[in-house]
Amino acid sequence: VRMVEDDLMYSTFLEVYEINCARNNREADLPITHFKEQLNQAVSGQLQAEAIVDIRLQAYNEITKTYVTENVFSQYMYKTLPNGNHLWAFKKQFAIQLALSSFMSYILQIGGRSPNKILFAKNTGKIFQNDFHP
Predict the structure, then answer these.
(1) Residue 113 vs residues 13, 15, 34, 66: alpha-carbon distances, Å
(2) Taking every annotated instance into account, which residue ranges of this chain make up the domain PI3K/PI4K catalytic (predicted)?
């Protein structure tokens, strides 16, 4: 059992995404639904492996263009932090923490990182892995 103190300054990437969806009047599960609809043919076994890879890539590109844009997190932090100095300090610390976290995940061969397992401090930019077990 791992006890963690709840801090109001910590949020998850999933919370950021859900706030973005609420702001844009969009269902949070829409990208998953779209991806599954695109791959229905692959599940039924009608396509070969190369075609499945192409369909997955096409579905991913459509999702990143229409549903989950690349600036979801930066928009959230821009609206959360009071001024540019705080944003710069956050970005610097966050980049260091994210690089360290990614490196450790690679070295320890930890996969399955999902948005609800990664917490970040809105005031400092530090990252906390919810279940960082090799």
Answers:
(1) 11, 15, 21, 23
(2) 1-134
